[in-house]
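FW: tagging you since you asked about this chain on Friday. Here's the raw sequence from the shared folder, copied in full. Didn't touch anything.
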Amino acid sequence: MNIQASARPRVVLGVGAGIAAYKACELLRLFTESGHDVRVVPTRDALRFVGEPTWAALSGNPVTSEVWESVHEVPHVRIGQAADLVVVAPATADIMAKAAHGLAGDLLTNTLLTARCPVVFAPAMHTEMWEHPATRANVATLRERGCLVIDPAVGRLTGADTGRGRLPDPLQIFEVCRRVLGGRALDLAGRRVAVSAGGTREAIDPVRFIGNRSSGLQGYALARTAVARGAQVTMVAANVALPDPAGATVVRVESALDLRAAMLEAAESADAVVMAAAVADFRPAARSDSKIKKSSAEPDPIHLTKNPDILAELCDRRREGHKPSPAVIAGFAAETDDVLANGQAKLARKGCDLLVVNQVGPNLAFGTPDNAAVVLVAGGDPVEVPRGPKEDLADVVWDLVAARLA
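HL: got it, structure written out here
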């Protein structure tokens, strides 16, 4: 839905001198097509990658990198003062170093100094530059000052190099910025959270598996909203065909045993864990190494064995004093009948702090863009969440998690 012209949020898109500058054109398009008023402020060297006419045509606003143009309008002050959001994409190591040290040699760095709105950095650089102690110190400084610095993605970089440092998908950066513009505080800044998403698959043979209908949409919404609230997010994704959320470290798994190993490892450094994945309760007791052929005879029955209860195990480890353990553990319960009664029983049995209970079925929860749920709270009153976008339910979960962490 487009935003009314009278209420168009004013966004400054800063563009650093990196090869990923061409991807910022798509980010600009996402902002303008959703009704935002965007002023592009590139660095002088960024214009070597994408020229001023492109930015002006896509934004509908004048473009300059210099403080000496239109001086009577005092752009080096006014642009930052008037902004509702400043996002720098790509944010190079050079830009973040200047921002962290308060340097102001061009229009973009002046804008960063004068902005009193939320500031988002989407870094892009080679892995060695991202991992350099100077860059890490500058990122830490910016985060301490209240800026949201999205961790770069892992993937193909300039040339033949591959590693962490790739600019996240522009749509995912836009989703983070959209949540930031919604006014959420960075109440998870400095926190590490682990989220599971998707549905596990338990192999019968190399071709067939036992699975479920989970798409991973709710888990990904949890990851996106946590990033937008300042958290460092590890997401364990089971068989999900969705683009990685900007800023999240994604660990891909297939089976329940794979997911258990990844979640136990992630929980070691997490302040909070949210188990949103649909984990198979059972798996075949034996897996055929070759495809089971169809014949005229009736097939042999598939004998099942129980999978470990990962949520209960995380809670048991904490209760038994395992160090370190997450301070807050939340789970999801998908039910078809007696939803609340079954949810209350699960909350007591598993020992988690929060349990999100939702009804599943045709056009309910699995694979849909919306969700409705009741969040059961250990020692507190349940919180009912009406049907709405899955990001809204995710924010309610993080509200409750943040309150407990505080």
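FW: Residues 5-181 form a domain with the Rossmann fold fold (CATH 3.40.50.1950).
HL: agreed, and Residues 390-405 form the longest helix (16 residues).
FW: great, closing this out.
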